[in-house]
Amino acid sequence: MPRFPSRLAVAGTAVVLAAGLTTPTAVQAAAKPSARARALSWVAMGDSYTAGVIEATGAETEPVDGCARTVGSYPEIARRDLGSLVDQHNVSCSGATTENVDATKLSPLGRPLPPLGSDPNAPYPPVPPQIDAAGPATDLITVGIGGNDLGFAEILKNCIELGATHLGQGTPCKDAYDASLPGRLAGLRDAYYRMLTALHAKAPFAKVLTVGYPHLVPEDINLCTYGDLRQFATLTTGDLAWARTAIVEPLNAAIARTTAAHGDTFVDLYPTTAGHSVCDADHWLDGVLTSILPLKYALVHPNARGQANAAAVVENAVLGG
Question: Any idea which architecture 7-156+178-230+241-318 has in CATH?
């Protein structure tokens, strides 16, 4: 796992960081030896992989609005690590798509909790588009989004059901979805580019970092056990191999290419999470469940170690590392 510099090291880079992310006037002020770097205005945007959501990433932050942001999510970890160097506004929300970032409200579902499987406080009022939190004074935007545009949760749910129906044999999920993926990825690239364009229009002086998705499925599919709810439940072995190469890796590639085409910076979590997939012994992502007794949902999301790793990688990117 990347190690984040000490607080003293962070303090030593504050003026340089401010110079890289602020307006020309602020850059000139930061360059003066006597100048004191102001806190960077940072808006953290994204979906459930940013928000945290699951119990394995701690309690929800206040106020609770149904977006299921947790104290152990990477924006909140980074907020604590960077302290007074940043003024962070975390508006990430479970279930968000690119459209919920740049255009439309989202009616959040809250946090799935046993025994009913849904948030007992739902329904929640709609939350505004995440872009509303940004403006001309914003220095930094991080955004981790795209999986819901591709329909990842829908595909995962249906693939688990198909795998059970086929008793773990064959590639029923690939057979059902493979033909639709090129169109889905093309739609994601277009939506992602529109989102980045909108973010720059709303926050013209902000540096934008896009954050990819971690290594969900191991390179060695034999590490996964069919029927294990702490892994991918009844997804077939063949469909897991397909999901890694046809969904997760192309999703990251689409985000990376679109980010580069827009002149922004892609923060790649995939290499640092290799060997820490859902099925690895030292896993930084939990499967359908975090645990069976007690029953804790995960729905294939990063756990506390996965979020800590994401925080370290994002922090290094924020500091220009």
Answer: 3-Layer(aba) Sandwich (3.40)
